[in-house]
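Form P-L/3: holo structure prediction, ligand flavin-adenine dinucleotide.
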Amino acid sequence: MDQDVIVVGGSFAGLSAAMQLSRARKKVLVLDTGMPRNRFTHASHGFPGQDGNSPQAIQTALRAELAVYPSVSFRKDAAVSIAFEGGGFRVSLADGTALTARRVILAYGVSDTLPDLPGLRERWGVSVLHCPYCHGYELDRQAMGVLLRDETALHQAIMLPEWGPTTVFTQGAFKPSDDQVRQLTSRGIKIEETPITELNGAGVTLENVGLADGRNVPLAGLFVAPQTAPACDIAEQLGCAVNDGPTGPYLAVDAMQASSVPGVFAAGDLASPMPNATRAAAAGVMAGVAAHRSLIFDPDLIPAA
Ligand SMILES: Cc1cc2nc3c(=O)[nH]c(=O)nc-3n(C[C@H](O)[C@H](O)[C@H](O)COP(=O)(O)OP(=O)(O)OC[C@H]3O[C@@H](n4cnc5c(N)ncnc54)[C@H](O)[C@@H]3O)c2cc1C
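OUTPUT (holo model):
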């Protein structure tokens, strides 16, 4: 086998997994295409020791720490297919190379599909946001909105007044029940039924949203829940089980981050219903440790192809 472990995806989860493995002197290769989910934001928040730094700066720091360990290597390339082979796995890359490993850790994250509204996409990660814990503080108690498309967004909306005055926009897509209206109004939340037709503001800042009836509602931030999907189909090729999450499917894993397929571990947003960089890193730590342990305690875990 070329490697003890191949890690597919080299961001918060993948690099944290590789750290544990390289500190156990396992031969580990990190494959990465350089597109972490939070790349659209200027400043990432809440990751210990890196609060407020750019995603790029955080990735550089994580890689620099890891690069001192001699048994880890990095490759900027995409894993495109995977097959069981010789008691392990054969991973084929976009450049045509194929590499083998005894275990794989899937940490390739998810991709986001955003609501289709003029002016929304270009503000993603700056003034169009997914998570108040990540970016709510920076809105500095100014007016904020939520696209209220389903129950998930309702939960988020009810929390948001902690960070600033809140309006929910039902967009004609979601009709809150009488109980839900009471919940929202008891938190001081305004309910706007006229659909947003565009987002306005200088550059990527948000100043207001334009409504279908011609009114403008001043807002500094708009929270949306994107639809998510795995960033590639490697887990699907392996037959890994999935769960339904609030924004899309995510891989089913146990407490040790083992997937339903022997020898395959998964961590980060790909295998969690709650996206968060610190949680992804913590899950990566567990996946790295679990993959290492499986090499020791279950060396013949994977049936030969
Ligand atoms: C706009 C935005 C802002 C955010 N801000 C914050 C914040 O401030 N604080 C916070 O805690 N969380 C934040 N998050 C959530 C955070 O980005 C994720 O929880 C975190 O990035 C998940 O880490 P991960 O390692 O699972 O996946 P990712 O960081 O998404 O990394 C996956 C990696 O896998 C690579 N990859 C994909 N497919 C392949 C393949 N086939 N082969 C090889 N490599 C592949 C990608 O290029 C990428 O580098 C934000 C999310 C968004 C969308």
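COMMENT: Residues 3-112+227-297 form a domain with the FAD/NAD(P)-binding domain fold (CATH 3.50.50.60).
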